[in-house]
# Entry
Amino acid sequence: MEGKTEPLKNRGKSSEDDKLFGNEKEQIKIIEALKDMYYLLSRNFPAKASVGLVGNRYRLKTRQIKALQGMSASSQDISLRKSKEFTPEELKGKTIYLDGFNVIILLETLLSQGFVFKGLDGCYRDISSVHGTYKRVSQTQEVLVTIGKIFSKLELEKVIWVFDAPVSNSGKMKSFCYELAQQHNFNWEVLLDNSPDKFLCKGDKLVCSSDAWILNECKQWFNLGSYVINNLFPNTKPPYIIEP
# Structure
């Protein structure tokens, strides 16, 4: 990897997370809150008002509310997303577009043993964010190589990474992806776009993302996070993976 050291050792885990998510009492509270969110959202209650109401009822902390938002979905959204989801077997010969930072940060968090959360739509999400600046961590290269090998095994025609151009270090990530692609013979293209969400949803692109808006608006998608997690942990999930 470039440079002598990485600026961060791991991704995504806050000092308070073990207390907020690591014990059964808190997990039960979040799952109960999720049931209420599903009820309200499925009846077209506004998302912001719903999460405010439910968060207050269960006295959730800020990071718990963020996790709850990522796990929540209405019955309508779940049906819509499932109707457009590709199976691994359907990927052969396809070109896929990856929501770059969204995909990478989730798997960096997973490999860092930070908490990740399975949504009602089957997508896993983290509660990290780049806040306008992305910094590679010690798991970044492993994540990229793992994704490359997965898509090679599934016999995709081409993988196109799409990164948010305004995010700091997106240009460095583009260079790093091409460097790894050359080393491992991955058929990758890397794009920087000012509005990657809209770009991914334009036309009939097959995309990888766990972003709720993208999943609702895109033509077709593949659940890469679920595929990776189910293959890494086919039987029992580790305690830092929270599921409904």
